Amino acid sequence: MGLFNFSTPKPRQFNYRPLYYDERKERLEKMKAQAEAEVALEKKAANYIGLQKGFLTDRRAKSKKNYASHKKASALRFLIILIAILGILYFIAPELFLAFWKTK
Length: 104
What we know:
The chain is mainly alpha-helical.
């Protein structure tokens, strides 16, 4: 009765057939997808600036501006740290600090 039956039943197949199929709509969707892919490739190519004329000179100018701004920031940071150290020395040992600046 199935005591020694080792075969397993196969699953039922799903076979769905739509009642209405619009071939024109599917062709339009494929065409839209292709057009969007082409536009994406064109945008990607337009954003690539490695081969444009003047690319290296623009990069050099930006680099010089960044260097100048970092140099100014570094000088300002140095002055702030120097003032902070002098202030700490004044609060720790004001007599030494004032003796150094006095002229006789």
